[in-house]
Amino acid sequence: MTTTYMVSSKFNPAEWHSSNETHYMNAFREVENGKSLRNASDKLAKSIAYDASKMQKHVREKIGHRIKDVASWKAEVEKERSCVISEMEALLQCKAMLEKALAATQHPLTVPKKCLAYRTNRAGIDLVKDTVEKQLFKEVQLIEATQAALKRTLDQVIDQYRRLESVKKRLDKDSLDKHSALRIDNYCHGLNNYSSGLGYHKFAVEMDPKFTTLPEWENFSYDNITRARWERKMSENLRKKVHELLVRTMNELKEMFDAVNLAMNRRVMETSEAKKSLTNHLKRVMDEMAKMKGNIDMLKKSIYDKEKYMQVAQTRLEKRGYRPNMELCRDIPKFRLVDEVRELEAALDSLKRRLQDAIRAYQALEQQKLSLEQDIAVKTTSLEIDRDLCYRMRQGMSWQPFLLSTAPKLKDTSCCRQATPPRLMSRLSHRPVTSRSITTPMSRGGKLEGSIRLHSAALDFTSPPPTRGGLRSSHRVITPMFG
Asked: Can you tell me which family this protein belongs to (predicted)?
């Protein structure tokens, strides 16, 4: 029988011991590695915890600084906003003054126009372009020019108010945004590891392109404040010019009013004196006419009487011509009768010529009487127009409403000129400030000319205020306020 030997699958003792040693060594190594890893992990965790706590504290401090910065800028913006509101109220008062002044010129303008219309009804020689008419024309032109200046200035005030309103809206939005930012930053400043509402927001670390840089953020509020101060300065200057316009025009209108009244008084006195003188001459003419009438009657009676003498003389001559024969002699009575007739004829001719002269003189006096009466009637009409119509109507013409519209004093907004907080001064004064002469835009047509000097960052009246860092605020939005 054949015996078959199988190969053994068992390990020998050496292998068994070697395997055990290997496991011992591996276990020891892994344990040591674990200890080392635990120690390193503990150190790492403590280090990271320390760094995280330190970083969180640092971030909290930065957020606190940011809160102070935002609060400081917010306070400055709100202070400027308060100043803008105060200036807007002052400008509204200025607008009301202009509107009252403009309304106060409506009735006075009709008075000189009516006076000019009434004076066209003067008759005859009194329809003259005298000093009164010239002064009335000047008064109409002055009032119309004043109305035009007031309307132009009122438009400028309305436009300036709209610019202030636009600036106020920007300050309102800036203040509201900073209020929201402060609320968020205060919430973030109070967060800790045990706060509620914590969570992962992995996309929050990404920088959105709409985020602004710190200089842009500072420049935005700086530009808003600078623009507001610039507009306030323009508004203050405009209010001063408005006050000067009202005072100057009030003085000019009163002077013109007095000049017209003075000219009208003088004209009334001249017309009254002329009428009085004409009346006196009329009385003399009428007296002379009465005397001349008596003279004519006397001449007629004298002619009548002389004609009787003539009739007697001629009758004697005619009767003596009937003497008969030799008795028809050219005796002395004959010659005396002939001489008497001739003398009476000469006398009658003289009396008749004198009567004709007297009649012509009487007719001339009568014509002069009619002329004087007509001229007196003309003067009476002129007096009724100037004294009874125009002057009485001008007595009801008062510049008191205009004077009342200029009475309110300019509102003082100097309380808005407060010192800028030191924290912001370094940001607001980084650019050198220049001084330049500024001429107001109200000097149109020679009206409201004037200039002021103010400290500004290269400000002028024809362009918007300067901005920092080459940045400029968004376009000015002007919303209708007065239609």
From this structure: Belongs to the tektin family.
